[in-house]
Amino acid sequence: MKAMTASEVTKKVIHNEELFILDVRNETDFNDWKIEGKNFEYLNVPYFDLLDGVEPILDKIPADKELLVVCAKEGSSVMVAEMLEEARRDASYLAGGMKSWSEHLEPVKVGDLKDGGEMYQFVRIGKGCLSYMVISNGEAAIVDATRMTDIFTDFAAEKNAEIKHVFDTHLHADHISGGRKIAEKTGASYWLPPKDAEEVTFEYSRLEDGNEVMIGSTKISIQAIYSPGHTIGSTSFVVDDQYLLSGDILFIDSIGRPDLAGKAGDWAGDLRETLYKRYKDLSGELVVMPAHFMIIEELNEDGSVSEKLGTLFAENHGLNIEDEGEFRKLVSENLPPQPNAYQEIRETNMGKISPDEEKQREMEIGPNRCAVR
Q1: Residue 188 contacts residue 178 (beta carbons within 8 Å)
Q2: pLDDT tens for each residue of 260-308
Q3: Catalytic residue among 14, 70, 71, 143
Q4: Where are any strands of DSSP class E within the chain?
Q5: How far apart are CA 373 and CA 365, in angstroms?
Q6: Dihedral sign of CA atoms 309, 314, 315, 320 in order
Q7: What is the torsional sign of CA 110, 113, 116, 118?
Q8: Is 106 in contact with 155 (CB distance < 8 Å)?
Q9: What share of the chain is helix, strand, coil (3-state, %, to 5)?
Q10: The predicted structure's pLDDT at residue 260
């Protein structure tokens, strides 16, 4: 019996490898959120149903596939994996359980910048969250950082880059931002859209339409484009005239939901104008890099999530609804459940509450639900 790390499972997802997962969480938890892979198979049997042994389920587990046992925190999966080993079935367990899966970040280089810099995407595979780092001439900017801040500061240090700027495209409601913590640790400027920051309790730099921030001396700029819809302050960036960081406004297979502040009806028009007018005026050659992905099929072969804007205008259903009434109905009525603890997460990101690390983990458990499709 051995532990399989979240990083190892992520590699299997990216490389489309086969894996059989025995998930021993409760059925409702499994149905709400599970490890996804294109060639993964699943069996969900709650741990309590296996206390008397695993013999009743052995015929449901293929003997010719790698087996991973998964639970919430690790303990139950270790016990079940031990029982499987005693039954002469090779089994691994997920180290740290679904909590570790929720927190794993996979850095992926997505491209070079025109004057020698680099763009990286950090894929939070278990939550569908995407963060970014722009590096140029020894300086770095981070966009939409997660609360696992060490990976960003350590990565920048490995690249000999000083973090100068940290941005949040909007006030997040599905995960806790690490932006302010990174800025405090490194002395970087922390940028927020002011319309999303009216209730924050800390100082910040105002991210407004027309801002241009230089990274390094190679004239790599981040141009802020005011793009309301998901939140009233949602802001996109065009980086190096190559990449459109769309935040939670536009995804690869869906569009952002406008209801997380309780104003779906009011903001649906803003969302439509952003997508159908502001984005339509941009170059179709821009590579869209969103703050989230919804489904595993959105991952590219290298594990990154991106697509050209022109391709999305041709293929993304949310960009091809001619009737405004139908569009409003899509974004105000056909909505998934709201993210877990989203009000507490918003208040944490405003600085109003300061939950401890374990509480933050609990608040973030589950999938992101920032999109409609």
Answers
A1: no
A2: 555 556 678 888 889 999 999 999 999 999 999 988 889 999 999 999 9
A3: 71
A4: 2-4, 19-23, 40-44, 67-70, 92-94, 106-112, 118-124, 129-136, 139-143, 162-167, 189-192, 205-206, 212-215, 220-226, 235-239, 243-247, 255-256, 287-290, 307-308, 371-372
A5: 22
A6: positive
A7: negative
A8: no
A9: 30, 25, 45
A10: 53
Structure-block tokens of residue 16:
């489309």
**Residue spans of alpha helices (H) in the chain:** 6-14, 27-32, 75-86, 97-103, 150-158, 179-186, 264-273, 309-315, 324-333, 342-350, 357-364
Q: How far apart are CA 305 and CA 365, in angstroms?
A: 22
What local confidence, expressed as pLDDT, does residue 356 receive?
93
Supply 364's token pair.
Answer: 């973030």
Q: Which of 224, 161, 159, 170 is nearest to 193 (CA)?
A: 170
pLDDT of residue 217: 61
Q: How many residues does the chain have?
A: 373
Measure the CA–CA gap between 63 and 40, rounded to whole angstroms: 15
Both tokens of 19, joined, read 């894996």
Only one residue has tokens 């998964």, namely 70
Chain CA centroid to CA 211, Å: 25
Residues whose CB is less than 8 angstroms from the CB of residue 234 and which lie 6 or more positions away in sequence, other chains included: 169, 170, 193, 196, 227, 228, 247, 248, 249, 256, 274
Residue environment code for 259-297, b if the CB has 16+ CB neighbours within 10 A, otherwise e: bbbeebeebbbbbbebbbebbeeeeeebbbbbbbbbebe
Q: Write down the residue that tokens 């609804």 correspond to.
A: 321
| Tokens found for residue 49 | 């149903």
pLDDT at 154 > cutoff 70: yes
Query: If you average pLDDT over residues 32-57, what whole number do you get?
Result: 95
Evaluate whether 113 touches 134 at the Cβ level (below 8 Å). yes
| Pairing outcome for strands 162-167 and 189-192 | parallel
> Is 71 tagged catalytic?
yes
Is the pTM higher than 0.90? The answer reads yes
